[in-house]
Specification:
By secondary structure, this protein is of the alpha+beta class. The protein has 30 helices and 26 strands. The strands form six sheets. Strands 14-26-25-24-15-22-23 form a seven-stranded mixed beta sheet, sandwiched between helices. Strand 25, helix 27 and strand 26 form a beta-alpha-beta unit. Helix 7 packs antiparallel against helix 13. The two termini are 41 Å apart.
Length: 856
Amino acid sequence: MQFLPKTIPEIQPEIISVKESPPELVTFDVGGMKCAGCAKAVERQLMQYSGVISACVNLAVEVATVECQPGTVDAEALAKKLTDNGFPSQSRLGENQREAEAATIERRQQEIRQQIKQLTIALILIILSGLGHVLGTKAPILSNIWFHWGLATLALLLPGRSIIVDGCRSLWRNAPNMNTLVALGAVTAYTASNAALLFPRMGWECFFDEPVMLLGFILLGKTLEQQARRRAASALQALIALQPAKARLVDFKLSSLDLRSQELPLNSTSEVYDPQYIEIPADRVRVGEWLQVLPGEKIPVDGEICEGKTTIDESMLTGESLPVLKQPGDTVAAGTINKSGAIVMRATRTGKETTVAQMVALVQAAQTRKAPIQNLADTVAGYFVYGVMAISVLTFLFWYFAGTHIWPSVLLGHGAMDMGHGAMNMGNELPIIHYQSPLLLSLKLAIAVLVIACPCALGLATPTAILVGSGIGAERGLLIRGGDVLERVHQLDTVVFDKTGTLTTGNLTLTDYLPIFQNSEWDLNSDINVGNKQDVCSTIEGVSGNSQDACSTIEGVSGNSQDACSTIDSKLLQIAAAVERGASHPIAAAILLEAQQQGLPLLAAEDFCTEPGFGVSAVVEGRRVFAGNAEWMKKQGVAVATELSGSLQGKTAVYVASGGVLLGVIGLKDTLRPDAKAAVERLRGMGLRVMMLTGDTASAAATTAQQLDLATADVLAEVRPEGKARAIAALQAQGCKVAVVGDGINDAPALAQADVGIGLHCGTDVAVETAQIVLMRNALMDVVESIELGRATFNKIRQNLFWAFGYNTLGIPVAAGLLLPATGILLSPAAAGAFMAFSSVSVVTNSLFLRRGFRT
């Protein structure tokens, strides 16, 4: 099968440029938010502050992220403004982040304890109210109307007090929320019952049990919802808990730090467990300091092992369950657990720069970014409470002035259904009233409309799903940057892989040398310290098939064919290694490693210059030398014969030239990642088109493509870094939704251009920063899992929004009496409150079900 480089159309992509002064991000913990209306009110207040560019509020985790112009926003002043407006807030500022996080957790735990206390009181009141109906005349005290008045009064003053106060304050601030609706409903029912009790001749019934049960159901729903939200945030809390609090600072020169033992038991009395050390906070450790970590302890900062041997549990960072063997020279990450041996490590990254701190920051940022699909819910939520209050008023007016006259039968037979108290002459019994006044029926329906509407479900639909999805991803080493990314993942139809370092291991090995040096000015008789010399004649025979001609060419340069072959072979590698010292690329690493293994001294080189996608040049021994691909050679005026290129079919060829003369060619070969083919097949099974994009030669790309069963049309070879972005733009111009998987600097433009960029964490920082999904385990099967997780999470978002809109669309008309004339179904305020509580709980619970499909 013939693979040829495809011509990439010259389409100017809209690549995101890096601003010189990027916006400043400030994060706040915001309390007091009860529903989507509150979240919208917080966003509105933040946007009114001078210097704020955008604001995003997450109801599920009670966090607000503000994007502002650098140096223009006082975070503390902004937090105070929110606090003064009824939303207690605290900014998360650098050094105080750990303390702020602990304070936030403590505040939420206190809220939950208070909520459980209020719920307990409400449930006791509900039980006492229910016993009055069950026992009737058998318990005169429990059935006494004044006893039920007392229960309702206590319900409003004790468990319902915070709801009523917050609801009234929100209404006063022109930002009504769910508590406003509940407060209006409960107070109206209580007031109407008081009127019926004090003026029995009106013929109204008392329904003191309605506010009792209404507040009880609301508090039950809130408590269940809060517990479910805590479970949804458990993965992030586990990540935060990974950050160690203490570190053991030691002097590595102490004789007591003899760590030559391979495995030490946890209860060992070895002197290594009693060194001279200083215990300091982990966030005070500085780069370069030496730390001791004992078995069972967490690694305090990112670093490198200097002494000792152990196994490290990295499961919370990478999702890998098996401990990893670590020896001197290996890197370790903060938060991972030292399982077996005592070690001494040198700190390389501390504080916010550690891997676990960056993961926490990524997950927190992801949980505050909304999916575009949430915009409709946010827009509705902003006007929802006003709309519900208007519908409630219209419901009352309709039934009082028209409905009860059009269908007079609705006034009969509903007393028992509504568990109403009859108008009593201060008696002890609770007679069943079979007739309701038009005013009371209209009032009940209006109250039911108020309390059945649920803005919480709208506000929790997206953030709870993102909360659970991002948490699952963090547990498995998949960092997804936000809800907007999830929506784009759901739309993907094409996945484009980089080749070197992504589909392949990136560990290139030298397989062939083809030295030429014909008509060059290099001194081939210089004394070179060569170890493990190789007969270039046999090498050339393997690549060109004509060793005789090659050797005769070399023999013309030196009288001794055998010595000349070895000398020229080593000289070519030595020159190439000197030039590649100035490059950071797998090819450069492979050439330098081979030179080191052969014991070749590096030649002096200076004035390095790298041309991404082409090669590198440097001045070696006073001569400008170029090392790169065939196109790079052509740019330098160096002729490359077609048959020479063909001799390295299926391999990566590095041409070395100086003074317009080709010195030789070096052939390298990469190996496919073990999970590459399985990942490609799984992606195809998901209905995705899989492509390969590489700057390597067409023949090298063809070899990899054949191993992966990729079609010719799905291979784009010999594409420069800026060409990669144009290639992705060309696919997008055809209507494709493209994900790019890469790991290097060369991939950054394509990652930025793609609809979804997926970066391997072992890759360069710029690739990881550009990507919208970061794979901590560097396994290609995680590409599959991240897309599956993105699709499943977005489906949960759609299900939640469908339920939230559907519930309110159907529930409000039923509460308004839509079914009353035909079926006699009348929702009491208490029943409406129960449905309201169930709505919020069901949305959060549905999000938690996402875990069932991604069990470890």
